[in-house]
């Protein structure tokens, strides 16, 4: 449960910030010798350890290689198939992408000197999850603030933004603000191997939940389940620009005569993709089961529990909790290690309770 929010004194805020910094530093030092961390000393004493380096150090003990044989989470074990295609980290050949037509509320609050983690909304929390993930693995990251359309819903910004950015990357991984990476230590390359993403797979998406009791929801005119555009892996191959152009121009009713019906009704660009685009590019679109990269724990329909990517369509407050739990897991693990390994004799066992 999150702490109760409300009015706080400046001293409380200062103490809280100081406490977090102390815990973070000790957590990092527990894993890495202080002599290896480049601190500068002198009259203008400061550390040149940036947030990206700090996160990479913090997650280094748990970060997996692209060819790690398995991933365990509780009772779940996910096995990598043999002969994985992606064997080395791709770094800045991968772009983690956020899109919006509005600035982050947290940015506005920060500029006013009012930033407070407890008041963070789900949009900022989701973006922080994506940005943190990119820093941990050395991927490029961009938050594109796009212009609104005059005649269609704001989510239609996706195809053109993807088309403009994919020219410079091998892969783009896009997420809606209410979608999160479940495991911050698990690289995209591992997931590409797990899902067997081939060079021909221009766009990969997960299916939406589908309930046979209500077949009219989340399905197209042929009763085929929609794929959800809240998480997409876009690959720079010979077909991708053609697909994205067809998708972007769909509401103009040139190639697809009735596509304009999805300018504003739900599910906007997602419905257009499901009704038209994927039928012309079946061999270039990869569809994942809903449980793989959609939904969240507790969703029983189609078992949409978000094994690797979670999408909180309804209870968006869970985005923030998901991010918090990831950070606290990485932060407290080295602290536990210090106790388990009895670093520098911090655990002292006594035989009898007496004064010597």
Automatic annotation (TrEMBL):
Entry annotated with the keyword Transferase: yes
Keyword vocabulary terms for this entry: Glycosyltransferase, Membrane, Transferase, Transmembrane, Transmembrane helix
GO biological process: protein N-linked glycosylation
One of the record's GO cellular component terms: Golgi membrane
Gene3D superfamilies referenced in this protein's UniProt entry, alphabetically: Spore Coat Polysaccharide Biosynthesis Protein SpsA, Chain A (3.90.550.10)
Chain segments annotated as transmembrane: 12-31
Keyword Transmembrane: yes
InterPro entries from the UniProt entry: Glyco_trans_34, Nucleotide-diphossugar_trans
Single GO molecular function: glycosyltransferase activity
SUPFAM superfamilies: Nucleotide-diphospho-sugar transferases
Family the entry assigns: Belongs to the glycosyltransferase 34 family.
Protein name, UniProt field: Nucleotide-diphospho-sugar transferase domain-containing protein
